[in-house]
Specification:
The complex is a heterotrimer of chains A (370), B (284) and C (558).
Chain A lengths: L1 H6 L3 H6 L11 E5 L3 H18 L4 E5 L5 H11 L6 E5 H9 L8 H4 L9 H5 L9 E13 L26 E4 L5 H8 L7 H5 L2 H12 L5 E4 L4 H8 L4 E5 H10 L4 E16 L6 H14 L2 H7 L6 E2 L32 E3 L2 H20 L1
Parallel strand pairs in A: 1-2, 1-3, 5-6, 5-7, 8-10
Antiparallel strand pairs in A: 3-8, 4-7, 4-8, 4-9
Helix pairs in contact in A: 3-14, 8-10
Chain B lengths: L9 H31 L11 H4 L9 H8 L1 H32 L7 H13 L2 H14 L6 H25 L3 H9 L4 H30 L2 H6 L7 H10 L5 H30 L6
Helix pairs in contact in B: 1-12, 3-12, 4-7, 4-9, 4-11, 5-7, 7-9, 8-9, 9-12
Chain C lengths: L2 H4 L7 H11 L10 H41 L4 H6 L1 H10 L9 H17 L2 H9 L5 H11 L5 H10 L6 H8 L2 H7 L16 H4 L1 H17 L11 H12 L12 H10 L8 H8 L6 H9 L7 H6 L2 E4 L2 E4 L7 H32 L2 H16 L2 H12 L4 H9 L14 H24 L4 H9 L4 H29 L3 H6 L7 H10 L4 H25 L9
Antiparallel strand pairs in C: 1-2
Helix pairs in contact in C: 3-28, 5-6, 6-8, 6-13, 6-14, 7-8, 9-14, 13-14, 19-20, 19-23, 19-25, 20-23, 21-23, 23-25, 24-25, 25-28, 27-28
The chains are: A alpha/beta (370), B mainly alpha (284), C mainly alpha (558).
Chain lengths: 370, 284, 558
């Protein structure tokens, strides 16, 4: 029934005359995101233009997306919802939707259609992985390496398996301190075919193989927990190759001009987008719907790509992706979805990880601690 | 120990100087990390280490850009503002409740004194992560999680042991006959408290207040759990900085905090000595 | 000398005293009340006043601090989620499932169908799935998939009932049969938000027990969850399943003469001719894991409202349907972490004694002016923000950091072979020793200050050399200070979170870091609470020891 109010919204009236709307809208809003360069790109592409049109609206940013599920559960227990719109990865969106903590939305009703009139649900296509999820970007977790390592004698890594090759590419690595992603890469490099990876991981033998592969680099690896760790470690020369989000690497390479290059082989695809928490009061919900409608239209998603190298989730945004806001370089070749970059891509299996996460995590942490 | 006697043997001399050098090294260990932060915060570049220019004492290698960042960046300013709003309120609450209770505890006949004392001191002893987890769940249930008052109450609880300890310490040396004299001269208990007792225990109260203040001003674990974006304090912002974008602005903030610590420390030391002198407990 | 020995003869014996009291009557206070009572009253008033002064703070601490911790401890045993989400299944398992190696009977599957449908509508089934997934892998997705699939359970009977008589599709038929007539009157024409609590018709639960239970659950969900009116909602397929099961079990419909009696007996007559399918097969269609006895064993083992399961997990054990067993070897981590926390805290404590003792000794034996000056060097780190000190160590210890740079510059270390000083146990130990050192020096110093220098001088004048004088005379007197400092440092150390998180890397983290992980990432709050409770227990024992040895009121700050 919350959707009834949403139905009243039409893009034109919202954008043209926010003040004259019949319905009440809250004049402040708490948006939750990831901090860092990603949040900065959202501020530049979405919230700054929005505030220009709605000068009375106060927008508070909270960098708590990493703890979003825990926080929303706690808020739900307390019945005290302080967030209005939350940026989460797809896996968290599915979980929040399952638990009823995120609101189910009708994408065609609340989101703007593409400029040519294609309904939002078609424009986003398969990326709408849950009824609650409003996709924004496609990103990937992939590797960056230093280009000035003397011990490599001019060789450059070309495959993800070079991460495991300490003979040709000696030096410290950095990998994320969780099993997700690392186990898949380990199996791929142990000769398992892409299609068989998750089946293999269900067996004791497969998990053993993955850990045995990781064992080969365990002592030469720094295990990161925050997305900024690897760029920092690469810049400081603490590691020679490490995984992180592709956007972080882009800013390290292009914006900070560090001697680092991208390795796109078997990049791990993932999605990120908004969810609206269940149970917002009417005026706050109206404000959020107004904002979401604006922030996810074709132009805004394309604009975001001018600040960070994540692919816009709408098909119709792709042709509009232009140049970097400050550097003036073309952004398209830096997108994870660019054909040259996506020769080998790994599509992350949310459902599978939802089941095996606890077990494998316990095992992974035990393995790390030993 | 005070001085080496002229008749000391070479072995004794070696011991004497060796020991002093050892102590000097330990003092260096204690103080060096704090000192090292200060010049690095004036680094003109975005590095965490001494650049060749800095080592050559080139003035161009030094700059105040990180301080400018701290004083102009809205995120840091908001964090500073939150800290300045939260810490004094938590201090005020901790001091008023704590002093009252300390006066009560110092009376001669208090039932269950040991148990009460143990409970009041426990916030200092219980691991912060446990306090934080408990408060996170409980404050969520009662709607305090993510609110200003939630953080203030959590920080008050953490600051109270310090107030209790410092104030009871000053009350130990308090001469009871003074309150009796005041009472016999016709002053009520409240007037006695403010006119006779308070001035004498004031140093203890103030140093307790400073401890409570620094506890709240420095605290990061509990606020990470109990607070939300609206209550992001300076330590929280620093913690994000250390985990996320490691920028030398953190070192500038650190230097400012060290300056504040020195200020507070001097005040506490001054008060402690004054109080001991007043009560005739210190020979110095 | 005591009074007793000084004036033994003047002291009246107890018997004499008693006699005197009997002769003179009780001693009176100025206002004429007996002195004893008057004194008692004064004492009571004094006690009351003291308590009144303490009460506000005590209440404050109890509410803001003690209650949260108690609440957290409660979470470590709480397990209501199972019995609240699938109550009928728990009862059915309890009553009918005896051979735990076999799949349970139809009654259990039917109960699960009713429970699961309700839970799915309330969106509670995935939360239960995650809860049980802590115990048996795969249950999480089993519940998620089944939440969608359960919509079809019972469809076969719904179709046949409706084919028999279209009225079975009408919401009104069902409410007339199941609901209390007064409730229907109340609910009719009411706004959706104001529908009263659902009440079953008298006696219907005796005739159609499963249907009544399933329908009541349906009505509650429709009212509370969806904010709609059961008078206008078609029942779920699972309710037709319940009706089929009741009727085919030989429900005594002839005794029923309420509304829809005719329709009900017609249905009862037709039911034996219905095409039927076992509920277990319907569940097998959703997911064949439902035929795995282990799934049911897990539900059964965790059906009680309180569980020790989290505590078992916290010590690397698990509760299986067969009993308590150790976790598989490669998943054991908590005992290792506890041991490591204790070990590293011990090392840090030892380092603090080694570094703190000489400094405290020096401070206690220097002239007061000098020692006060040097004391500032100890107190400044104590007063400096924890994060400042931790970030300072990060700056110093990195591979490209100040220490490594200096060592390379001196030539002790090759440029391409820099020392790994951070992101391991060494980093944690160095940084935490620095942070906790003042907590060792201060108690040591305050104890050493009270040791009279004349003792050592006396020892020396009696012929002891410097070492003997120190070791046999001075050191034993400083042991209480070592004890106090050690316990304090150890208590603070085992609960540390921030510093290990930032400099600990893979091997230098503590149990606290794992607790934080379970709170904000894995969301296994029960396990976090259990780990916290164990840690808290350890700290409280140390706290008690500290109180016995030093006394909490003797803690000194600065």
């Amino acid at each position: 029934m919350k959707l009834k109010t949403a139905m009243l919204l039409t893009t034109a009236t919202v954008l043209a005359a926010p003040g004259s709307m019949a319905q009440e809208m809250a004049d402040s809003m708490t948006l939750v995101s990831w901090g860092g360069a990603y949040q900065a790109s959202q501020i530049a592409a979405y919230s700054d233009p929005y505030q220009e049109m709605n000068p009375d609206v106060e927008i508070v940013w909270d960098e708590s997306s990493a703890e979003a599920v825990a926080r929303l559960r706690a808020m739900d227990e307390a019945g005290n919802l302080t967030w209005d719109l939350v940026d989460v990865v797809a896996a968290d969106a599915i979980r929040l939707c399952d638990e009823g903590l995120a609101m189910e939305v009708d994408h065609d009703e609340i989101l703007a259609p593409a400029p040519d009139g294609t309904p939002a649900s078609e424009d986003f296509g398969d990326l709408i992985v849950s009824d609650c999820f409003i996709p924004q970007i496609v990103y990937s977790t992939t590797f960056g390496y230093r280009t000035d390592v003397a011990e490599w004698n001019g060789a450059e890594p070309s495959s993800v398996c070079d991460v495991f090759d300490t003979e040709t590419f000696p030096g410290q690595r950095s990998l994320e301190r969780r099993p997700i992603g690392n186990l898949e890469w380990a199996l791929i490099c142990d000769g398992v075919a892409y299609e068989d990876v998750y089946d293999m991981l269900e067996t004791e033998e497969g998990v053993d193989r993955a850990f045995a592969m990781l064992d080969t680099i365990k002592d030469q690896t720094i295990w990161w927990t925050a997305g900024a760790d690897t760029p920092q470690l690469l810049a400081d020369g603490e590691v020679v190759i490490g995984s992180t989000y592709n956007g972080r690497l882009f800013s390290l390479i292009e914006e900070q001009d560090q001697p680092v290059a991208m390795l796109w082989d078997w990049q791990m695809f993932d999605l990120d987008g908004w969810i609206i928490p269940t149970g917002l009061p009417e005026d706050r919900l109206n404000r959020v719907l107004d904002f979401v409608n604006f922030a996810t239209d074709t132009q805004r998603l394309a604009d975001q790509a001018a600040y960070i190298s994540y692919g816009p989730a709408r098909d119709s945004s792709a042709p509009l992706v232009g140049q970097h806001a400050e550097l003036g370089i073309d952004m398209a070749p830096h997108m994870p979805t660019d054909p040259a970059n996506s020769v080998n891509t790994f599509v992350f299996n949310y459902e599978w990880w939802a089941d095996y996460r606890d077990d494998l995590d316990a095992r992974f942490q035990a393995w790390l601690a030993q | 120990m005070a001085a080496l006697p002229p008749y000391a043997s070479p072995v004794q001399r070696a011991w004497y100087y060796g020991f002093r050098i050892l102590c000097g090294l330990i003092f260096f260990f204690l103080i060096a990390p704090i000192i090292v932060v200060i010049p690095l915060s004036f680094n003109a570049e975005d590095f965490f280490t001494f650049t060749p220019g800095m080592l050559a004492l080139d003035p161009d290698a030094y700059g105040t850009s990180h301080y400018r960042d701290f004083f102009t960046n809205p995120a840091w300013q908001q964090a500073l503002g939150n800290s300045v709003r939260i810490a004094p309120m938590a201090t005020l609450l901790a001091v008023s409740l704590g002093t009252l209770a300390a006066v009560g505890l110092s009376q001669s006949h208090v039932p269950f004194k040991g148990a009460i004392m143990a409970i009041l001191i426990s916030p200092m002893i219980v691991p912060l992560i446990i306090s934080a987890a408990g408060m996170y769940f409980f404050y969520s249930r009662i709607g305090l999680q993510g609110t200003y008052w939630g953080v203030v109450m959590a920080h008050t609880a953490l600051g109270i042991p310090f107030v209790i300890i410092t104030v009871t310490a000053t009350l130990v040396g308090f001469d009871r006959s003074l309150t009796r004299a005041s009472a016999s001269l016709g002053a009520g208990p409240i007037r006695t408290f403010f006119k006779v007792q308070m001035p004498l225990i004031l140093p203890g109260v103030i140093s307790g207040a400073l401890f409570a203040f620094i506890t709240s001003f420095d605290e990061v674990v509990v606020v990470l759990f109990v607070g939300s974006a609206g209550q992001k304090t300076l330590p929280w912002q620093m913690f994000i900085g250390l985990r996320e974008q490691i920028s030398p602005t953190i070192l500038a903030v650190a230097t400012v905090l060290v300056a504040i610590s020195i200020l507070l420390l001097t005040t506490v030391e001054f008060l402690r000595r004054r109080s001991e002198r007043l009560r005739g407990m210190s020979p110095g | 000398m005591t009074d007793a020995t000084a004036e033994p003869t003047h002291r009246p014996s107890p018997r004499e005293q008693k006699e005197m009291a009997e002769q003179d009557g009780p001693m009176l206070a100025a206002d004429g009340t007996p002195l004893k009572r008057s004194l008692n009253r004064a004492l009571r008033a004094q006690k009351l006043r003291a308590l009144m002064l303490i009460a506000p703070l005590l209440i404050f601490i109890l509410v803001t601090f003690v209650a949260p911790i108690a609440d957290m401890l409660f979470r470590s045993v709480e397990n209501q989620i199972v019995s609240e989400t699938v109550p009928r299944t728990i009862v059915a398992l309890d009553e009918t499932w005896s051979d735990h190696d076999a799949v349970p009977g139809e009654a259990v599957f039917a109960a699960m169908a009713y429970d699961l449908k309700e839970a799915a509508e309330r969106r509670e089934h995935t939360r239960l799935g995650s809860r049980l997934n802590y115990e048996t892998t795969g249950i999480s997705s089993l519940f998620r998939r089944s939440g969608r699939g359960v919509d079809d359970v019972g469809e076969i009977y719904a179709d046949q009932f409706i084919e028999l008589d279209e009225a079975w599709e009408e919401p009104a038929t069902w409410t007339a049969l199941m609901a209390d007539p007064e409730w229907i009157a109340d609910a009719e024409g009411t706004e959706d938000e104001d529908i009263p609590r659902f009440r079953l018709a008298d006696g219907i639960a005796d005739i159609l027990p499963e249907t009544a239970s399933a329908y009541a659950g349906f009505a509650r969900v429709i009212i509370d969850q969806d904010g709609d009116n059961p008078l206008e909602e078609e029942p779920w397929n699972t309710i037709y399943l319940a009706l089929y099961r009741d009727l085919s079990a030989g429900a005594d419909v002839s005794a029923y003469d309420g509304p829809q009696a005719r329709r009900l007996s017609a249905a009862a007559e037709a039911v034996p001719g219905f095409e039927s399918e076992p509920v277990s097969v319907m569940f097998e269609d959703i997911d064949e894991d439902w035929l795995d006895p282990q799934v049911w064993g897990t539900i059964d083992a965790f059906s009680s409202r309180y569980t020790a399961g989290y505590y078992l997990a916290a010590i690397d054990m698990q509760l299986t349907p067969e009993g308590i067993e150790p976790q598989p070897e490669e998943q054991r981590i908590y005992l290792l972490l506890f041991k490591r926390t204790l070990f590293m805290s011990g090392v840090i404590m030892g380092m603090c004694v080694l570094l703190g003792y000489p400094v405290a000794f020096l401070l206690a034996n220097l002239p007061l002016r000098t020692s006060n000056l040097l004391m500032i060097l100890v107190l400044l780190p104590f007063w400096t923000s924890l994060l400042v000190r931790t970030s300072a160590w990060k700056v110093l210890l990195q591979q490209e950091g100040v220490i490594n740079d200096t060592l390379v510059w001196i030539g002790l270390v090759a440029d391409n072979d820099r020392l790994q000083l951070i992101n391991n146990q060494l980093g944690t130990i160095i940084a935490m020793t620095h942070i906790l050192l003042p907590f060792m020096i201060l108690p040591l110093y305050s104890v050493m200050q009270t040791i009279p220098p004349s003792y050592v001088r006396a020892a020396k004048s009696l012929g002891a050399n410097d070492w003997t004088a120190f070791w046999r005379v001075y050191f034993p007197q400083s042991v209480p200070g070592i004890g106090a400092g050690c316990i304090l440092v150890f208590i603070l150390s085992i609960g540390y979170y921030i510093t290990p998180e930032l400099v600990g890397g893979r091997t230098g983290t503590f149990i606290s870091n794992r607790i934080a992980f379970h709170i904000s990432e894995s969301l296994n709050w029960g396990l976090a609470a259990a780990l916290g409770a164990i840690l808290l227990g350890a700290v409280l024992i140390l706290y008690w020891a500290y109180d016995r040895i030093v006394g909490i009121d003797n803690v000194k700050l600065g």
